[in-house]
Amino acid sequence: MNEMTNSHILMGQFDYYEPASIEEAISLLQKYGEHARLLAGGTDLLVQMKMERIAPSHLISLGAIQDMEYIITRQDGLEIGARTSIRAIAHNATVRSFFPALAEACESFSTTQTQIMGTLGGNLCNASPASDSAPALIVQKANAIIEGLGGIRSIPVENFFLNPGVSALKRGELLRAVLLPWPVSKSGEAFLKISRVAADIAKVNVAAILERDGERVRSCRLAFGSVAPTPRRAKRSEAILEGKRFTQKLIAEAAQTAVAEMVPIDDVRSGDGTFSIICEVNDLPAVKDVATEAGFTVEESEMEWMPKDYVSIDEESIEAKAYKFLEGIEEVDDVQNVYTNLG
């Protein structure tokens, strides 16, 4: 960001378009290519433009395209339009009943304002490693429905992310919707996010689905965000769980394997060692929630596996420290200092 930048206004000049149809939007994308950006909720795009990190010369709004904002049931699953707001998804009865991990992920998004303005398509197409919706959609075997001049194609959301900020969309393509297949019986799922403060992006987020066969794990899918260049599955950890009797010791082994599978970075939000503590200790309640929903029972006595030299994170003390600091804030700009003071 230029040190003279005023992040409250848009400095760059650009042409603004408001197509009335998906076909018109695709035509504009094809015409202007890399010089164009789609505007859905704008919760990330406009921030990036204000900070002068990106400067598109053509801004294409999807606001007038009504047939991209919907949640409909199909025989093969639940289809969610790309322009559907995060808040609408979080509060949708069908999503909450059949895809609770996605509902939990959407409820974890930043602030109420961001949930109202932000869209599912924007969260995915931003291709952030910290996307909250991505891990849930990946474990739910969701497919991204993509439309371009060549027609409609579908790919697993798992394959939608190529690199940080880079998706599988080609020139002249947009994400039209996401399709989630109906879950199988005797399965449970959950989502967990850990961040510095509630409105921040994730230090780590994880979604999990377990399918039960008696006291054994028939199948399992685990996906993490913020701990690799893209949201990704922990396939080696899944292999450890599948086909075995569900125990706390098994969870421990899978968690330790997950630490080895991921490649978290050391940045302003946390050191790379933080993921090890979070994954091996703090994620256990989430895994137990999934197991409970799937019908498993785990005896509390099995918690003895936990190494005594682990340092657990005292969430209450962190929250108390945050509130104490926030009480002293008088100017809006001082919010930037929250992260430094929380340590």
Question: What is the CATH fold-level name of the largest domain?
Answer: Enolase-like, domain 1
Q: Low-confidence parts, pLDDT < 50 over ≥5 residues?
A: 280-284, 300-343
Order of helices and strands: EHEHEEEHHHHHHEEEEEEEEEHHHHHH
Shape: globular
What is the C-level CATH assignment of the largest domain?
Alpha Beta
Instruction: Provide the number of structural domains.
Output: 4
Widest beta sheet: strand line-up: 4-5-10-6-7
Number of strand elements: 14
Provide a count of the helices.
Answer: 14
If you average the pLDDT, what whole number results? 79
CATH architecture of the largest domain: 2-Layer Sandwich
The CATH homology group name of the largest domain: CO dehydrogenase flavoprotein, C-terminal domain
Percent strand equals 15-25%
Instruction: Compute the separation of the termini in Å.
Output: 24 Å
Summed up, what is this model?
It is built from 14 helices and 14 strands. It has 343 residues and is an alpha+beta fold. The strands form four sheets. The chain has a five-stranded antiparallel beta sheet with strand order 4-5-10-6-7.
